[in-house]
Task: inverse folding
């Protein structure tokens, strides 16, 4: 049977642990996925090479006949209007590289770059649970904690494009050191890295039996903590409870400040939503200003834990908006 030729968009979500790729069809969603370990990429040329290899690999694994219509990239940290990632702690090999120019030269298709959390918000608005909403907030709970605030259908940029750095608001002053150089940022508690730190603190401060004691700091991952929580491990369950409580208190502040229709949770950590969401909802309800209490709508991304940004990357290309959202 002859394969139908399709025009697809490549969404690329650059994370601290993995660079995720998705072939997106505007109606059918993600038709193929691949990922690259971020730590395995050596330099910007290594990045281009890895991307190119994965694009070839996707052609084989999906068995689709397609041409790329564009590449949408989500990256953490700060990027300029020209497409340069200025600052991103976990992806130093791409810092100060003009990613848009580099990839347009290599792949000969339009390339757009945006902050990963902005893309997640665009993806939720175009394809996900925020469809039809004009005011909402998306939090991406991945290796770090991303946030994008949508006001009247537009992503809030702020005076210098830095609005939404929710992960770097202080939550416990002078405590955990953050990648930004300060101590006590929310991200050091509510993120993949944060929950690992919480587990080790809990283990150090109690003599509770826990299978998590068998792991070294470098071995433990949020996934392992989740699996142990499913097996009823008390430390793993408490780590999720503590994380949910801190996040719930901070989300209550978001409801009070922005009055959104919903706060949407995306990112890898929401795979553990069974443990996180009940305590988040309970804490938000307890901590929000009384006249907003019946309006605290906390939702989970419907695009899969890690796919919101890939959908957002595709939306950017679809709209042919060649502007950089930061
Ligand atoms: Zn910080």
Result:
């Amino acid at each position: 049977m002859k394969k139908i030729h399709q025009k697809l968009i490549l969404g690329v979500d650059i994370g601290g642990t993995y660079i995720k790729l998705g072939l997106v069809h505007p109606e059918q969603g993600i038709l193929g996925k691949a990922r690259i370990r971020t730590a395995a990429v050596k330099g910007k040329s290594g990045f281009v090479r890895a991307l190119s290899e994965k694009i070839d690999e996707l052609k084989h694994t999906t068995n689709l006949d397609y041409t790329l219509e564009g590449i949408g990239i989500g990256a953490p940290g700060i990027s300029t209007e020209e497409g340069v990632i200025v600052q991103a702690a976990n992806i130093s090999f791409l810092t100060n590289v003009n990613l848009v120019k580099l990839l347009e030269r290599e792949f000969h298709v339009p390339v757009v770059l945006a902050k990963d959390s902005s893309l997640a918000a665009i993806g939720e608005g175009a394809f996900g649970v925020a469809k039809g909403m004009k005011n909402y907030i998306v939090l991406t709970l991945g290796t770090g904690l991303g946030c994008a605030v949508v006001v009247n259908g537009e992503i809030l940029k702020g005076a210098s494009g830095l609005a939404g750095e929710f992960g770097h608001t202080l939550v416990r002053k002078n405590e955990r050191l953050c990648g930004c150089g300060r101590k006590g940022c929310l991200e050091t508690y509510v993120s993949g890295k944060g929950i690992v730190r919480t587990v080790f603190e809990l283990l150090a401060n109690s003599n509770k039996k826990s299978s998590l004691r068998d792991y070294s700091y470098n071995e433990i991952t949020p996934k392992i903590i989740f699996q142990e929580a499913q097996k009823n491990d008390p430390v793993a369950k408490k780590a999720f409870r503590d994380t949910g409580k801190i996040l719930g208190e901070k989300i209550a502040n978001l409801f009070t400040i922005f009055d959104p229709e919903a706060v949407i949770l995306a990112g890898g950590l929401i795979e553990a939503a069974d443990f996180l969401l009940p305590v988040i909802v309970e804490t938000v309800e307890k901590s929000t200003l009384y006249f907003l209490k019946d309006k605290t709508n906390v939702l989970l991304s419907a695009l899969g834990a890690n796919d919101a940004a890939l959908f957002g990357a595709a939306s950017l290309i679809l709209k042919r908006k060649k502007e950089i959202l930061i």
User: Anything to note?
Assistant: The pocket of zinc ion is lined by residues 168, 178, 180, 182, 185, 187 (CB under 6 Å). Residues 132-300 form a domain with the Nucleotidyltransferase; domain 5 fold (CATH 3.30.420.40).
